Amino acid sequence: MGIRVTLDRVLLERRMSLTELCDRVGITLANLSILKTGKAKAIRFTTLEALCRELECQPGDLLNYEPDEADDKSPAAEAAE
């Protein structure tokens, strides 16, 4: 997947632990850990909003798009092969 979660970087910049964030946001430590490690398949906008509120950041500070090798191929490039 081309979406990378940069929660660990933001937490480090804010000098906040994952446990402190889960207490502030009301999300389980297990679910935040899944998000932090990039294993989450989706995120609710309400969760993203709560994270941004508590971390005083924008959604783009937590999410980054990095194309996968498979994403680099456009339909036209695939047709040419």
Characteristic key phrases:
434 Repressor (Amino-terminal Domain); globular; two-stranded antiparallel ribbon; 2 strands; 81 residues; mainly alpha; 56% helix
Question: How is this structure best described in words?
Answer:
It is built from six helices and two strands. The chain has 81 residues and is mainly α. The protein starts with a strand and ends with a helix. The protein has a single domain (3-69), classed as 434 Repressor (Amino-terminal Domain) (Orthogonal Bundle), CATH 1.10.260.40. It is 56% helix and 7% strand. Strands 1-2 form a two-stranded antiparallel ribbon. The protein is globular and about 40 Å long. The protein has helices at 7-14, 18-25, 29-36, 45-55, 59-62, 75-80; strands at residues 3-5, 63-65.
Helix and strand arrangement:
Layout lengths: L2 E3 L1 H8 L3 H8 L3 H8 L8 H11 L3 H4 E3 L9 H6 L1
Antiparallel strand pairs: 1-2
Second-tier CATH architecture: Orthogonal Bundle
Question: In sequence order, what are the helices and strands, one letter per element?
Answer: EHHHHHEH
Please write the CATH class name: Mainly Alpha
Number of domains: 1
Fourth-tier CATH superfamily name:
lambda repressor-like DNA-binding domains
Distance between the termini: 23 Å
For the largest beta-sheet, the strand count, sense and barrel status come to:
2 strands, antiparallel
From the alpha-carbon coordinates, what is the Rg to the nearest angstrom?
16 Å
Mean pLDDT over the residues? 88
Percent strand = 5-15%
